[in-house]
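[agent] plan:
  1. take the single chain provided in the ticket
  2. run structure prediction with default settings
  3. attach structure tokens to the ticket
  4. add a short note for the reviewer (M.T.)
[agent] executing step 1
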Amino acid sequence: MALLLHEVWEELDENGQILEALCLAGPDGDALRATLGESANLVTTFEAASHVEAMTKYYSMYGRGEYFAGHPTDYNPYPNEWRARQQTHC
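[agent] step 2 finished; step 3 output follows
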């Protein structure tokens, strides 16, 4: 089972509302981080072994209640290849 590092980002939108974003650290999160503005802040990082575990932690951070996966494969453990790729860049 591969534990992957996740990042939680926050930034203010044009109306002053806080927008949150969750992505993987390293190259697999580059696309999301590219959409963030200059004022975005990295709030925290955490490790998780699957998409569901990551989203459960993220939902808990923001008091959103229980996370329900949209697809059965969301429960699958992350592949070891993803961890190897992340480790070469983080």
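[agent] step 4 note for reviewer: The helical segments are 30-34, 51-61, 80-89.
[agent] ticket updated
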